[in-house]
Design brief:
The protein has 17 helices and four strands. The chain is 46% helix and 3% strand. The strands form two sheets. It has a two-stranded antiparallel sheet. Strands 2-4 form a two-stranded antiparallel ribbon.
Length: 487
């Protein structure tokens, strides 16, 4: 059965879709997987991924990327904020992801058998996107044997194996001639691009770029170099729009301000299922914005002061600490335009394909624009975020990753967490945030951290999987880096 937040999304997004193929009165898990229309299974899978990534992992990523910290007047997320997450915590994130991937992989399996290359490409990209989040979060996870009804205890593939398989799967899907696709044509059941296959092709190319980029500081740097160089040399197009659950088939926001129909982070934390004031403005991001005169501070947070990361025992009045500003209509992004542009900016700079300035500038301006703000002055000559054109590669990389960190708020903080682990940016403070020498915007060890000064590097395997699958690996401490994290 779908986990609660997944059920919410499957039902609510079906209501806003123009598709008549999805019967919202039936649980998609109860449909015959071999007979149900692909157009019924695809939206269930998309909404399922959005539910887990946009709620569970968004909460986690926001804490560990220090967008927010636990309120000093509540207790809901102390275990995340002090790095004391156990195997019995947040199992529904893992379960929800694999439940969604089950729908997506069934679409992929059937589309391959039917020669429906449109659905095959869509399902492959979604499978890779969800699996990339899982393996980057946990390390070894089921991939090659996952969601196979004949394999009740799937093996856990290593991260390196999964990365290679994801590239191979994307290459296979991209090799298909979409003009020869048979069967039904995706439309409004495709909650991401509404059947625009050119956009799905660009998304596939950009996922390849991300997968290669994540290996740049590992012992597979040569694999990353070869892959990225080949992509850039080939002239393929990358994502030039947001990829996510944004609008329905009529162009209206897919999420609305109504119970069971809101953005999953808003639904899960802010108004429906938990105390609305749990998430408070962290000194980390607040000080970065203040130091740079960045108007996004007012778009990200309500009025008030910042709280040092993890300082939830601070007796200061809770009413003086700014609450994170969440909107029920905020989209869930599988990849934003900003992320795509900044991936490209790093790629061209890292491998000698020109300057990343134009891509960087466009990304920064795009993020400001999302909030109805102007970012042009920030990237202009002398601006707070002027691109270091004459600087070293490391200076350019720091600018790129720092702006990626700022732009992934609120729902994609897990990606900022991964990128910090890969690159070391934003930098880590050598002093507590209470120290006058603290540098604005640097990550700080949580005041009540439980890991002896070590930052989290991964999430722990859930008890639900360990109890059900004897092939689950031994527990790995959350302070142990995943394989590509060799920064």
């Amino acid at each position: 059965m779908k986990k609660f937040i997944i059920s919410i999304l499957v039902l609510s997004t079906a209501i806003t879709s123009c598709s008549t193929d999805l019967d919202i009165n039936r649980d998609p898990d109860l449909l015959d997987p071999d007979k149900a229309p692909l157009s019924s299974q695809l939206p269930a899978g998309i909404a399922g991924l959005a539910g887990s990534e946009g709620a569970t992992y968004a909460i986690l990523g926001g804490f560990w990327s220090q967008y927010w910290t636990q309120s000093n007047a509540a207790n809901q997320y102390k275990d995340i904020d002090n790095y004391a997450v156990g195997t019995s915590d947040y199992n529904f994130g893992w379960d929800g992801m694999y439940d969604a991937l089950g729908d997506i992989r069934n679409v992929k399996r059937r589309a391959l058998a039917e020669g429906n290359w449109n659905y095959f490409l869509i399902a492959t990209v979604l499978e890779v996107q969800g699996s990339q989040v899982l393996t980057d979060m946990y390390g070894s996870v089921p991939y090659s044997e996952a969601n196979n009804s004949e394999i009740l205890e799937p093996s856990f593939d290593s991260g390196q194996q999964i990365y290679d398989q994801m590239i191979n799967d994307l290459n296979l899907a991209l090799s298909k001639d979409l003009s020869t696709s048979t069967g039904i044509i995706p439309g409004n059941d495709d909650f991401v691009f509404h059947g625009n296959m050119d956009a799905w092709t660009k998304f596939a190319n950009t996922m390849k770029l991300k997968i290669y980029m994540r290996q740049t500081n590992s012992d597979r740097a040569s694999v990353a170099s070869a892959g990225i160089t080949a992509l850039l040399s080939s002239g393929v197009s990358f994502l030039d729009e947001d990829a996510g659950m944004i609008v329905d088939g009529n162009g209206d926001p897919i999420f609305t301000d109504a119970i069971n129909q809101s953005n999953p982070l808003y639904e899960y934390n802010n108004r429906r299922l938990n105390v609305a004031t749990n998430l408070r403005m962290s000194t980390t991001m607040a000080s970065f914005f203040t130091n740079n005169g960045d108007t996004r501070r007012g778009a990200y947070y309500l009025a008030g002061n910042a709280l040092n990361q993890g300082d939830y025992n601070n007796p200061v009045g809770a009413g003086t600490i700014a609450v994170v500003k969440l909107n029920p209509q905020t989209p869930v992004y599988f990849m934003s335009l900003e992320e795509s542009l900044l991936l490209q900016a790093e790629a061209v700079e890292r491998y000698g394909f020109g300057s990343g300035k134009a891509l960087y500038d466009a990304a920064v301006i795009e993020n400001f624009t999302k909030y109805g703000l102007s970012g042009a002055s920030y990237v202009a000559a002398g601006g707070a975020y002027e691109y270091p054109t004459a600087g070293t590669f490391d200076q350019k990389l720091e600018a790129i990753i720092t702006q990626k960190w700022a732009a992934l708020f609120p729902g994609n903080g897990f990606e900022a967490f991964f990128e910090t682990n890969r690159t070391g940016y934003p930098r880590t403070s050598t002093v507590p945030q209470s120290n006058i020498a603290y540098v604005p915007g640097q990550l700080a060890y949580a005041v009540n951290g439980s890991t002896g000064g070590l930052f989290p590097k991964r999430f722990v395997y859930p008890l639900s999987e360990r109890n059900a699958n004897t092939k689950a690996p031994a527990l790995v401490p959350l302070t142990t880096p995943v394989w590509w994290d060799q920064n």
